[in-house]
Amino acid sequence: MRFRVAVLAAGLFAVPALAHAQPFQGIYIGAGAGYSALMNVDTRASPGLGTPALTFRASSGFGGLLNVGYGLGNGFRVEVEGDYRQNDPGRLFGTLFPTAFNGTVRTYGAMANVLFDMDIGFPWVYPYLGIGAGYAWTDLDNVGIAGTTTPFALRVDGTQGRFAYQAMAGLSFPMPNVPGLSLTTEYRFFQVVGPATFQGMSELGASASVGAGNFVVRNQYNHSLLFGVRYAFNVAPASTAAPAPAPAPAPAQAPEPARSYLVFFDWDRADLTDRARQIIREAADNSTRVQFTRIEVNGYTDTSGSAEYNQRLSVRRAQTVAAELVKDGVPRQSISVQGLGATNLLVPTAKGVREPQNRRVEIIMR
What we know:
Structural class: mainly beta
């Protein structure tokens, strides 16, 4: 099981080379709930049951979580999470014969996660992978054997905390009419690393008390399928279509000159360099000193790549710049975002040329 988690963790840091990152930057909050399956739990009981090795097979249950995080703008996200899972113990094996196990098993966790969102070319879905680590408390609430169908009884109550880790794989579906809002569905593998020792009480027969004994719960493995919602703040609305041609100005009145700023990008990238952030900050600062009716944020690419891919890349670049403007204090409602692909080249080139000056976003204040 640990090998699988290690493979998923390695894949998390390998995917940036295989997929393009979803441009997402800023604070977000999320919540989820759904199905929880606690796998077989190996235990030890001594004294009382006359056997050192026991296993209880938990039945299905439910779980939920709340999280708050920050998108780094290059596909990676970091977050903190609080989660809850609840399952019935199911049946106990390792005795003379399987018997029903009563009570409730609850797990509370506080986790820190790292995730990576991927842009696979479809604006309506973004897969993601993640790993996390933290601390979880296991609460055994009146867990045990009733003693009505067996010659012995066992009852355990208590809470123990241990290190925990998890791995996640999911899909997010952005809501086109609500910028920043996404629906999510995901699978999680969660383990509480044992052993954890609980104090129990066991009996033989109808009234012969054996007394208190240790009930040791070894590693707990949980599989969850969760459905949720996530909202990212400071996400500017985007338009993927080229704008309609602006009408020619009336010759009798010259238009007021526009202020523009150019932000350049590395090849096939939509994240910001330090110099790019400095230019965006300058534009945001100047927006408070001049009168303007709107700010246009237009994304462009060079002529390498297909027309469809260049269109998507230009939109991602424009979205990243718009998000940085909002972060620097520009009202989101005053910004229009457009991706124009490999058009309006600053340096005319043939098809397939990686010209740095054509990989840009233009900020225009009108």
